[in-house]
Design goal:
This protein is mainly beta and 251 residues long. 4% of the residues lie in helices and 63% in strands. The longest helix has 5 residues.
Length: 251
């Protein structure tokens, strides 16, 4: 059982993520996971008077399932190559969106991941905005330039014709990251830079910013995160500032 409580600068408190997960062995060295989402998330707002949904009528939603996902993971061998295969059947109740990933390590190319996903499915933490069929390669930079501090990956999605390049560089307690995407058909491009600092024991600091000078400042400590969105034109809107607490409980 896990979730995330968000306290907003606008006076709201809500559980924006809440799910129950159970896993079991599958076909020897594989696994199957059921992730169910109850039809209730507590929330309180103090804007324009106090309002909440913490009452008997709404708590009944804990006995109902609003949606659920089923994920099957299994190592196997494909074309003589050792692979990890994951099939995810998501949003099984509200409108199924499936995804499949096949990951392997190629001797010369490095880590290779093939992703097939329907619109709305989550792949690697990102929700697909359209049907997706992509190949991602994490380049073996240590072998190419003899440097452990530099990382690079390239990804190409066939339906959208988007090519993405991720570059990373670590120096001491600072890690820099740049993500650039280019649509090879329209030549439309987008860019995002991220800076992480880990020099304070137990505290993480991250700033991300896109080409429009809009992004987030995040400070994390254990299960807490303070997130401050900003933009070039609007600066910082106090109503958008969030304090997040991620929790989990084994049953």
């Amino acid at each position: 059982m896990s979730g995330r409580v968000v306290v907003g600068g606008n006076g709201s408190v809500n559980e924006d993520k809440f799910s129950l997960s159970v896993s079991a062995p599958f076909a020897g060295d594989g696994s199957v996971t059921l992730n169910a989402k109850p039809n209730y998330r507590p929330s309180v707002s103090s804007k324009n008077g106090v309002s909440h949904n913490v009452d008997a009528g709404n708590l009944v939603g804990l006995s109902e399932i609003s949606d659920y996902d089923v994920t099957i993971a299994k190592p196997c061998e494909l074309l003589g190559q050792a692979c990890d295969v994951e099939l995810s059947m998501q949003k099984c109740k509200s409108g199924q969106a499936n995804a499949m990933t096949i990951s392997t390590n190629h001797e010369k190319l490095g880590d290779v991941t093939v992703s097939l996903a329907r619109k709305g499915a989550k792949v690697g933490g990102d929700t697909a905005s359209a049907d997706r069929a992509s190949v991602k390669v994490n380049l073996p930079m240590k072998d190419l330039i003899s440097n452990d501090d530099v990382t690079a990956s390239v990804e190409y999605d066939i339906p959208s014709q988007n090519a993405t390049l991720n570059l990373g560089y670590t120096s001491g307690d600072v890690r820099l990251g740049v993500k650039s995407s280019l649509n090879v058909k329209s030549n439309a491009a987008s860019h995002k830079a991220t800076v992480n600092y880990s020099g304070i024991e137990g505290v993480g600091v991250e700033v991300d910013c896109n080409q429009d000078v809009a992004g987030n400042l995040s400070v994390t400590k254990d299960k807490y995160e303070l997130r401050v969105p900003f933009s070039k034109d609007g600066g910082v809107n106090p109503d958008d500032v969030q304090l997040r607490m991620t929790w989990s409980q084994s049953l």
